[in-house]
Write a structure and sequence with these properties.
about 230 residues; mainly alpha; Growth Hormone, Chain: A; elongated
Length: about 230
């Protein structure tokens, strides 16, 4: 009996550091997603000059990312409920990285790069829809106690805020080396977050729900009707 109690205490002690590592890994997602968009804002005038595009076109580089992610967030939520959080987050981080590579390659190699940069930003918007919004329910799956969940959400929000503060500084510094380097920074950061999620975030119990597409569309209609 004593041995069993000691074993339970040992498992509980080991679980806490593992959970902390998982939360820190999850917190890398809002940081990277914020950097992936806001890091480009301070270098928009430079993009206009280098790409020979208008202010409206440069603004599309930012807005297309947000528009795509907004429309796909409900779909990503449905997929994460049905198939699991990590099953959605990992491909989303990969898509974000691919989008950054497309943008960077186009800016580096093509004379008329704007169209390909927009395509890359669409990929990043798709990735963002399946990464950042899934963070909160994933934290809820991992942290069952209210106090623990509240503290973890505080870490997530701090990470998001830190990304907003860091992004203009980091974007300007990287662009000071080569103007299109911020595009290539995104896949590197996405890969780092991907590795953290793979190694430190374990699939929580109950991370699979039999939610039908019919029920999903009904829920969306109910939300729209209330709004």
């Amino acid at each position: 009996m004593v041995t069993n109690n000691k074993q339970i205490e040992l498992n509980s002690t080991n679980a806490k550091p593992n959970k902390k590592l998982a939360i820190m890994a999850i917190a890398s997602i809002p940081l990277i997603m914020t950097l992936g968009n806001s890091m480009l804002i301070p270098i928009l005038p430079l993009m206009e000059k280098e790409l020979n595009i208008s202010k409206f076109q440069s603004s599309l580089i930012i807005t297309v990312y947000s528009i795509v992610s907004i429309f796909l967030i409900p779909v990503a939520g449905f997929l994460s409920d049905k198939y699991g959080r990590k099953v959605v987050i990992i491909p989303s981080l990969i898509l974000t990285g691919i989008g950054g590579i497309i943008c960077g390659w186009a800016a580096w190699q093509l004379k008329s790069a704007f169209t390909w940069i927009i395509i890359g930003r669409v990929f990043q918007g798709i990735g963002a829809s399946g990464a950042f919004p899934i963070v909160l329910p994933l934290v809820g799956d991992i942290c069952k106690e209210e106090a623990e969940a509240s503290a973890s959400l505080g870490i997530i929000e701090t990470s998001n805020t830190f990304g907003k503060v860091l992004s203009p500084i980091l974007g300007s510094l990287i662009a000071g080396i080569i103007w299109f380097m911020p595009f290539f920074a995104i896949p590197i950061l996405s890969l780092l977050s991907l590795l953290l999620i793979v190694f430190f975030v374990k699939k929580p119990k109950g991370d699979h729900h039999e939610l039908s597409f019919g029920r999903f569309t009904k829920n969306i209609k109910e939300i729209i009707s209330v709004a």
